[in-house]
Design a protein that fits this description.
single chain, mainly beta, globular
């Protein structure tokens, strides 16, 4: 948290200096959320299915998420936009393996850092945005080392880095209108490296390689479509569809198979249908149902998540001569959250039902154009 605060102060100071040189901070925001997940895991009738209630011993995971993001316009460098995003998930996991003896079982951190440079170009009648980016994902966990020098997760241990992935990517984004349907598309060429328990959207992690790491190249192809179906005095109904496709061809040898890693396509398809109430003095409410389906083509099996989310929020803006500050607290609750996994080594499917409560707040600033 202290690091994020220092970084925010630095970026705002940088904006004040660069503004005199025509470079300026277009926007910045800081989101902080406490996410608590519950599952029916205690008592003699436990089955990890259905609503087990907000009992402390049914807590499965608590996560404090902080995200800092923003955009700096480099006016003196051909109007290039520099976007940055820094995310930290601080996660504590809990379990009651025999229906009782509830305890904390793990403490982990997940860091994500992403920086992009983007510039818009017109190619004929088509508006495109070309982006060069770098994304790092780092996993850390509290661990202890045994007498044989092997590390394992332990909440009384010290925080170690257990996985790292890096991705460099470059390519265009463009919007197409096909038969009245607007499609936002992105096509990128990527270079990926993975180590430890990070996978970089490959179907195996770095620790599955003979030397504990792998690298290769890939292609990212994404399509997004969203639309308001109905907008009236009583609110609005809309949908969004996201199709993420990530091809990866990795070098190296997989330990479990003793053969070259080869290629895989990661598929992540999400559809969402939601209703939003009209705002009243800054207050609003939302309800949405969504489904996410994930698969790695190099392995059998898949993962599917079906969820119903309800949201209550408040928005408040404060205008100044240079721009607008805003504050946006929200409370979200998922009464239905079904996670189903079809294991590659089994013909059976397993489903777990969670309830999740998320309380968060976002502070931000948008520069006046």
């Amino acid at each position: 948290m202290k690091k994020l605060i220092k970084l925010t102060v630095f970026i705002l100071s940088f904006s004040a200096v660069t503004n005199a040189q025509q470079d300026y901070l277009k926007n910045i925001s800081w989101n902080s959320e406490l996410r608590t997940r519950f599952v029916d895991q205690t008592g003699t009738d436990r089955n990890r299915i259905g609503n087990g209630g907000f009992k402390s011993e049914n807590k499965n995971r608590s996560r404090w998420r902080n995200v800092l993001r923003g955009t700096v316009n480099l006016s003196d460098e051909w109007g290039i936009d520099t976007d940055f995003r820094i995310l930290r998930n601080g996660t504590h996991t809990y379990n009651a393996p025999n229906g009782k003896n509830f305890k904390k079982t793990g403490i982990q951190e997940a860091w994500e850092t992403e920086i992009t440079l983007s510039k818009s170009f017109k190619i004929g009648s088509l508006d495109t945005t070309w982006t060069l980016g770098w994304e790092n994902k780092t996993n850390r966990a509290k661990q202890t080392r045994n007498s044989s020098g092997i590390w394992s997760n332990n909440i009384s241990g010290k925080m170690n880095t257990v996985g790292i992935s890096n991705e460099f990517y470059f390519g265009p984004s463009a919007t197409f209108n096909i038969l009245g349907t607007k499609l936002d598309t992105t096509l990128q060429l990527a270079h990926v490296s993975i180590k430890g328990n990070r996978a970089g959207d490959y179907y195996r992690t770095g620790e599955n390689f003979t030397d504990g790491k792998g690298k290769g190249w890939g292609i990212n192809f994404n399509i997004v479509n969203s639309k308001n179906l109905i907008k009236a005095k009583w609110g609005s109904i809309g949908y969004s569809l996201s199709l993420t496709n990530k091809f990866r061809d990795m070098n190296g040898t997989l330990t479990e198979m003793g053969k070259k890693a080869g290629s895989n396509v990661y598929l992540d398809y999400i559809i969402d249908l939601g209703y939003s109430t009209p705002e009243y003095k800054g207050f609003y409410a939302k309800a949405s149902v969504n489904n996410e389906w994930e698969k790695y083509t190099a392995a059998s099996g898949y993962e599917n998540t079906f969820a119903l989310w309800t949201t209550v929020g408040y928005k408040k803006n404060f205008s100044t001569s240079s721009g607008t500050f805003f504050i946006h607290p929200t409370i979200r609750y998922s009464p239905v959250y079904k996670y189903t996994v079809k294991d590659a080594d089994s013909k059976d499917r397993a489903t777990v039902e969670y309830n999740e409560l998320i309380a968060g707040i976002t502070f931000g600033y948008t520069h006046k154009k």
